[in-house]
Write a structure and sequence with these properties.
alpha+beta, Phosphorylase Kinase, domain 1, Aminoglycoside 3'-phosphotransferase, Chain: A, domain 2, 2 domains, seven-stranded mixed beta sheet, globular
């Protein structure tokens, strides 16, 4: 069955045929501006049994803006793929003793269902684990911020859109908006995301450049005063991590990543060596102490940075967050979404980040380098290996920061610990000293 993937929302759910009336079968329909009184919530029969919402929500205030029809998705069809959020991909990519196939299996809504009677609030960071609740989605769809965006997008004024809430973001609230016969994704970014180095203006420029390069969805509007980014909805398929072991798939991925690296300069930078230090500072400012192993990891990072500085490479536009959830496959092309962490940086961080986040094998790592460079040198191999170390260090410190920032019910302590342990294991590899020497001979 085809899978509909929503770019920027980072949500992949099984495609559902629309009914003649325009509403997917098995969904509820609400009006965003009811006549009066609180907005009635869907009955328990329309929601997964384990999902409840403790927040009270009212309808949008009366105003001259057009009515918004909100389509509330219910449970996907039996046997369908349900992958929500890049932090789901982060969890699947985290070091684990479980077999990869088991960790990467499709998830059902109940697998990630929220515990009853808990309130979840958006936080900052990477797009995260599923909120999983259609009730939560209703609350998001009735947010006045969305109505403001609909009224502000050029050409949308006076039209009646249909809104499909897209769950799954810690950083953002995401919606599919169908209007005038076309479909778009509206992304409302969270507040205080600069704490994780996210520059929304730079993200917009990176997304525009990637769309021009043909490797990202079209950017339709950017409304900084409303913290909104509007992109064209793309119907595509997810990219299972195991498919990266196939040459024809990895070739498409390498081509898309290389296209990003070939773009013109973008107005932000990404330095993994600086990021891990900044994350520690932010964490401590929010009452979280760095793990005991931080010092050992930082010592290895300093040695890697020194080796790279001995043979510096010009910075390139990089994505810097190449999780599985950020890849979409459309008509044989691999699109890459979510440019929150994009910046001028080291292309080898992207390659290392891609390889370790998706758990590709040693053979696939070498194939990735061959597909990217043609002739592979010891310096290429060394820099890939060393940036795999830095990718895990960055990921670990991202988890440390989230312990002080996120309100999501997720074990960030364990997450950070697993990545830090793998970072140190890789850095203590017998080949580490040789990698340092080879990396300095690029």
């Amino acid at each position: 069955m085809a899978t509909r993937c929503c770019p920027e929302a980072l949500v992949c759910v099984a495609a559902t045929a629309f009914s003649p009336g325009g509403v997917p079968p098995g969904t509820a329909t609400l009006r965003a501006n009811p006549p009066s009184g609180p907005t009635p919530m869907p009955s328990a029969t329309t929601m997964p049994a384990k999902e409840t919402c403790t927040e009270e929500h009212a309808g949008l205030p009366q105003n001259p803006r057009p009515a918004i029809t909100t389509v509330v998705p219910t449970t996907p069809e039996e046997g369908s793929t349900f992958r929500v959020g890049a932090a789901w991909a982060r969890a699947m990519a985290a070091p684990s003793d479980e077999p990869k196939a088991r960790r990467a299996r499709p998830m059902t809504p109940t697998t990630r269902a929220l515990p009853a009677a808990r309130t979840y609030k958006p936080s900052v960071g990477s797009p995260g684990l599923a909120y999983g609740s259609s009730l939560r989605a209703v609350a998001q769809a009735l947010d006045p911020d969305l109505a403001s965006v609909v009224a502000a997008v050029p050409g949308w004024s006076g039209l009646e859109p249909r809104v499909v809430p897209l769950g799954g973001g810690i950083t953002n609230r995401n919606f599919r908006v169908d209007i005038a016969g076309q479909s778009f994704v509206v992304r409302l970014s969270g507040k205080d995301t600069e704490l994780l180095g996210i520059d929304r203006a730079a993200e917009h420029e990176a997304a525009m450049a990637a769309a021009t390069a043909g490797v990202a969805p079209e950017v339709v509007a950017y409304l900084p005063e409303l913290r909104a980014l509007v992109t064209r909805f793309v119907q595509a398929d997810p990219l299972p991590p195991e498919d990266l072991e196939r040459r024809e798939v990895l070739e498409q991925v390498a081509r898309s990543v290389k296209s990003i690296h070939a773009m013109a300069s973008i107005p932000s930078t990404f330095d993994a060596f600086r990021v891990v230090r900044e994350y520690r500072t932010v964490a401590e400012e929010h009452g979280v102490r760095a793990p005991d192993e931080y010092g050992a990891a930082l010592a290895f990072a300093d040695r890697i940075e020194e080796a790279f500085d001995r043979a510096p490479m010009p910075p390139r536009p990089c994505h810097n967050d190449l999780l599985n959830a950020n890849f979409l496959v459309k008509e044989g092309r691999v699109l890459i979404v979510d440019y929150e962490y994009a910046g001028m940086g080291d292309l080898f961080f992207d390659l290392g980040n891609l390889s370790i986040n998706n758990g590709i094998s040693e053979d696939a790592q070498m194939l990735l380098l061959e597909l990217y460079f043609g002739r592979v040198t010891p310096a290429h191999v060394a820099r890939l290996k060393l940036m795999r170390v830095m990718s895990d260090f960055r990921e670990a410190m991202w988890g440390v920061v989230q312990q002080g920032l996120s309100t999501l019910d997720f074990d960030y302590v364990d997450y950070a610990g697993r990545h830090l342990a793998r970072c140190l294991e890789s850095a203590r590899d017998a080949g580490f000293r040789g990698w340092l020497d080879d990396a300095a001979r690029i």
